[in-house]
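Design job #97: recover the sequence.
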């Protein structure tokens, strides 16, 4: 297989970049909350940026590796230990068969992302491996990880251990983000009435905790 779950943490699920196109069936896009962190973790271990990772919320899992692997952990700030030895985040790390990956208490942020070279090999569901727990869809049996679960890992190419994302490019919890404002013009079918909506996105986009958003004012255009 590749990875055995010794302790699942609070809520650990398999996520990728989600499954767009199924809102008409009541299925949200879902996927990773912090897409930058997921992409970065994947690229560090030589995966496609959209491959499946583990997303852990508030408490990290304890995982035993049943074969050698290369991993990377990104997102929130949480002490990382391999075989009891603390390791850096946002870095490609080697793990030997029989070693255990564990985590300390969360220091900042909300979610961490664990990528393994080759990706977590679970079946596709509507084009995605992400877990939609409410719908029991995707991921590992449509649910969060549980003690004793075993996860298969795909075949991996050569990966350079030790490569990392430069500090300046890491999106840390509390760091400001540059976000784009958007303007839309809404018209009736007749085209006579028009309204302008300004949407402003502001605040911080914390690692793995989403971003704060504010809808702008809705005001009339052209006297209607």
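Job complete. Output follows.
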């Amino acid at each position: 297989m590749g990875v055995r779950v010794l302790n699942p943490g609070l809520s650990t699920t398999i996520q990728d970049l989600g499954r767009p196109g199924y809102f008409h069936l009541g299925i949200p896009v879902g996927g990773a909350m912090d897409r930058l962190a997921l992409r970065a973790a994947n690229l560090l271990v030589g995966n496609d940026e959209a491959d499946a990772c583990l997303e852990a919320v508030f408490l990290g899992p304890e995982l035993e590796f049943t074969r050698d692997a290369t991993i990377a952990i990104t997102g929130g700030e949480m002490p990382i230990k391999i075989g009891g030895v603390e390791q850096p985040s946002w870095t490609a790390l080697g793990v030997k068969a029989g070693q255990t990956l564990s985590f300390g208490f969360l220091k900042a942020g909300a979610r961490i992302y664990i990528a393994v070279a080759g990706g977590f090999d679970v079946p596709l569901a509507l084009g995605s491996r992400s877990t939609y727990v409410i719908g029991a869809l995707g991921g590992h049996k449509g649910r969060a990880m549980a003690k004793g679960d075993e996860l298969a890992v795909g075949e991996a190419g050569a990966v350079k251990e030790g490569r990392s994302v430069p500090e300046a490019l890491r999106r840390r919890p509390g760091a400001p983000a540059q976000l784009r404002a958007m303007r839309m013009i809404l018209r009736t079918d007749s085209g006579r009435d028009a309204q302008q909506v300004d949407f402003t996105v502001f605040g911080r986009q914390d690692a793995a905790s989403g971003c704060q958003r504010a809808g702008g004012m809705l005001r009339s255009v052209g006297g209607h």
